Amino acid sequence: MTSSPTLSSFDQANLREWLDEQSRQLGFDGLRITDTHLGDASERLNQWLAEGKHGQMEYMARHAQLRSDPGLLVPGTVRVICVTMNYLSPEVHFDQEWQRLSEPTQAVVSMYARGRDYHKVMRNRLQEFAQMIEKKIGSFGYRVFTDSAPLMEVELARKAGLGWRGKHTLLLNRESGSTFFLGEILVDVPLPVDQEEESHCGSCQSCIEVCPTQAITAPYQLDARRCISYLTIENPDAIPVEFRKAMGNRVYGCDDCQLICPWNKFAKRTALPDFAERHGLGRASLLQLWSWTEDEFERRHEGSAIRRIGYSRWRRNLAVAMGNALTDSGVPEVDKGLLREGLISALPKADTLVAEHIQWALDL
User: Fold this and answer.
1) Which of 57, 122, 283, 334 is placed for a possible disulfide with 183 were both Cys, Cβ 3.0 to 4.6 Å?
2) CA angle, 182 then 212 then 282, to 5°
3) What mean pLDDT is predicted for residues 321-330?
4) pTM exceeding 0.90
5) Which among 39, 40, 49, 61 is positioned nearest to 150, based on CA atoms?
C-alpha cells in the first residue's frame, strides 16, 4: 500500500458523512468501519477447521492464517470499510417461498442466486467507490473484496457494527434482517471505527429447529458437511445418501434458516435491477430445468453465481429432487410418469456423477 493521507478530526467527520452518502448513491445499504483486530475469531475458525466441518472447502484451511489478520492479506491495512447490499427482489415473498417448498415438482433455487452474480455487481461498485474516495482525499492504499479472498467477512462486518451473528452464523441486522451481501475495502487510512452491536436473538432457536439436515449443531455452530447449501453448491462429489431426502426440491442452496428468522420480517427490498429474477428461476418446475441442455445451462446462467457449479452438479441436484418427488404421495401419477421418463431418457448419456443420482432416484 502507499502512504496514507493525514486527516484532521474535522476532515474525518466530514469524510464519514460523505462516505455514507456516496455509498448509498452506489447502491450500498449499510456502511461501517472497523480495525483489523479479530480477537479470538481466528481461534474459533481453526477449531472449526480442525474438526473438519468445512467439508471439501480446502481453500478455507489453505489460507487460514491470512484470514486471521487483514493486515497479512494486504500489508499496511489499518481499517476495513464494510458495506452491505440488499438482494431481496420485489417479487420474492416468504410465504410463497414456503409454499414452493411444499410443492415437490417445483424447483427451489436460493433467493440470492436468482439474479446476477453478486460478486461482479459488488466488486465493480466497490472499486468505483474506492476510486471516488481517492479523488476525495488523495492517493491512499486500498483493495476491494467481496467473498473473493481469505477474509473473515462476517466477523469483520459484525465487529464494524453492521449487525450481530445469528445462531445460524449469518449476520443479522435490525433494519434489514439477513438478506444482504457483504463487501469490504481494506485501507491504510486510520479512519474512526464504529461500535459493535449487541446480539438480539435472545432465546429464539427457530433457525436451529427448522434446518432440514440439522446442520446447525448448536447455537453459532454450523457443520457445513450437513448443510444443503454446501451439499448442492460447494460439494463436488455425490450427495451423501443420508441427506438426499431432506433436500426435498431444493436444487441450489437453502433458505430455510432465513425464511424462519423473525428478524427477516424487516428484510428490505433491493432497488437494483441486477438482483431481479432471471429465466423464471423463482417459478420453474424440476422438469423445465431438467430439459436444459448444457449449452442452455451455460447461456441462461451467464453472469450468474449458479454457473460456477457446472452442468453436472446442477443435474445431480435436480436428479435428487426429482427422486424425492417420485416418492411423494401428493404428486399425481401423470406427473410422476413424466419425471420418471425424463430421468430414464437422460441416463444413457449421463456422466458417472449424474448417473448415480438418477439411478438412486429411479430405485426409490
Assistant:
1) 122
2) 60
3) 98
4) yes
5) 61
pLDDT per residue over 21-58, tens digit each?
999 999 999 999 999 999 888 888 888 888 998 998 88
CA distance linking residue 206 with residue 99, whole number of Å: 18
pLDDT score of 62 more than 90: no
Q: Which of 147, 188, 274, 363 does the annotation list as catalytic? A: 147
Among 199, 202, 222, residue whose Cα is nearest residue 211? 222
Three-class HEC string of the chain: CCCCCCCCHHHHHHHHHHHHHHHHHCCCCEEEEECCCCCCHHHHHHHHHHCCCCCCCHHHHHCHHHHCCHHHHCCCCCEEEEEEEECECCCCCHHHHHHHHCCCCECEECHHHCCCCHHHHHHHHHHHHHHHHHHHHCCCCEEEECCCCCCCHHHHHHHHCCCEECCCCCEEECCCECCEEEEEEEECCCCCCCCCCCCCCCCCCHHHHHCCCCCEEECCEECHHHCHHHHHHHCCCCCCHHHHHHHCCEEECCCHHHHHCHHHHHCCECCCHHHCCCCCCCCCEHHHHHCCCHHHHHHHCCCCHHHHHHHHHHHHHHHHHHHHHHCCCCCCHHHHHHHHHHHHHHHHHCCHHHHHHHHHHHHC
What is the rounded CA–CA span in Å between residue 264 and residue 257?
A: 10
pLDDT at 66 exceeding the cut of 90: no
Q: Is 20 one of the annotated active-site residues of the chain?
A: no
pLDDT digits (tens, 9 = 90+) for 286-320: 999 999 999 999 999 999 999 999 999 999 999 99
